[in-house]
Structure to design on (317 residues):
């Protein structure tokens, strides 16, 4: 099969297309013919060697953590899915090695669920990682509730686009912060208010929009935005970040404010909820660009630029 591999950390030029054997599904695993794989900022971080302290890496590495495809074989004891069934999943494992930038993948069937029926299979590849990240950040870590006010930084990106929709579906008042060109896009997703991140006095504007304070701030960007999140949220509120992992509360900008870090985990039940929302028309997937497998380096360079609207995927044909 064709796959993208790299044998050392470095720039996108380390990514090479290779021919490797099709994997065989082990006990409890299925073999999936991949239609498309999601491209995510974490793929770039792993390739650059920035996550080796968090997740061990074994070379050669096939990048990619999410996909959509068709079941083509079963390992012993794997009976949840029929041959030919369309599925999608998020397949982060304890060790980084065998990813989704490939024509086939063998993985535990517990990592996958049925793909949405209302959209093309390739489009479903954009949902697992970003959708689960948004879901777990908002509901598992953020505990967002009906009628609460949430600020979402980077609201037009892959995770942000899903977070806006999920928070709005819960009955929260969503204040989306993105680039000026994406303000109307975030409103169409369900944001009540949309703010250009380059606007001077964002904090003052937020106080005008929500005089009683902000209940939850969701940080998808890190850095200075992470620090500003603690100035925005009220004292009894919560800050959730997918970028900044602060192990000691005393190191936080404001230790008295509740803080949670989300490093998304595979969860087929939650993915099933997202799949149902897609089929019910309650969750939209926006794909900005598609790349062929041989153009994986271009796809990663594009995601590394930031400012994407929605998702980027790699297709196998």
């Amino acid at each position: 099969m064709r796959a993208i591999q790299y044998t050392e950390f470095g720039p996108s030029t380390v990514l090479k297309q290779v021919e490797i054997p099709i994997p065989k599904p082990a006990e409890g695993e299925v073999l999936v013919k991949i239609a498309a794989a999601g491209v995510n900022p974490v793929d770039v971080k792993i390739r650059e060697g920035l996550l080796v302290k968090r997740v061990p890496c074994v070379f050669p590495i096939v990048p990619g953590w999410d996909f959509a495809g068709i079941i083509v074989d079963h390992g012993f004891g794997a009976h949840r899915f029929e041959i030919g069934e369309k599925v999608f999943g998020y397949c982060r494992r304890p060790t980084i090695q065998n990813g989704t930038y490939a024509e086939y993948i063998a993985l535990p069937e517990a990592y996958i669920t049925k793909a949405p029926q209302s959209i093309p299979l390739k489009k479903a590849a954009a949902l697992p990682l970003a959708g689960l990240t948004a879901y777990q950040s908002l509901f598992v870590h953020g505990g967002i509730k009906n009628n609460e006010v949430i600020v979402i930084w980077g609201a037009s990106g892959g995770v942000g686009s899903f977070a806006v929709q999920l928070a709005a579906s819960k009955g929260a008042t969503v204040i989306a912060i993105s680039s000026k060109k994406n303000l109307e896009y975030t409103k169409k997703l369900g944001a009540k208010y949309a703010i250009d991140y380059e606007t001077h006095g964002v904090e003052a504007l937020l106080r005008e929009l929500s005089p009683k304070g902000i209940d939850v701030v969701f940080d998808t960007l890190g850095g200075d935005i992470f620090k500003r999140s603690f100035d925005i949220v009220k004292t009894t509120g919560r800050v959730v970040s997918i970028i900044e992992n602060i192990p000691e509360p005393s190191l936080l900008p404001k230790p008295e404010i509740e803080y949670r870090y989300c490093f998304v985990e595979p969860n087929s039940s939650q993915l099933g909820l997202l799949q149902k929302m897609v089929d019910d028309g309650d969750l939209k997937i926006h794909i900005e660009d598609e790349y062929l497998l041989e153009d994986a380096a271009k796809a990663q360079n594009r995601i590394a630029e930031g400012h994407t609207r929605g998702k980027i995927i790699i297709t196998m044909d």
